[in-house]
Task: structure prediction
Amino acid sequence: EVELVESGGGSVQPGGSLRLACAASGFAVSASNMRWLRQAPGKGLEWVSSITSGAGNTLYAESVKGRFTITRDSAKNMLFLQMNDLKPEDTAVYYCSRGDSRGQGTQVTVSS
Result:
């Protein structure tokens, strides 16, 4: 059974940093295309970043490029999202995703 559990969210001031983590079970993160998605209040689901299976090529939405970094730890079977220089518009619930599956999400709030 595929299970994804996100953690690491919180409240930070603009310019701050957070590192999100996603613990996966039921499959190998390194053998899957993985994504981070987010949903801001009152808005739809938005793609943030992806990492491909195998080679681990990374892609980013223009809005986060240069500030966010997606990585994975094959030994721990985990996915991460390092978020730097956070902005109020980054406020959202963040989800890790594999195919049609995603976790319960973790809240990120950026506010002064």
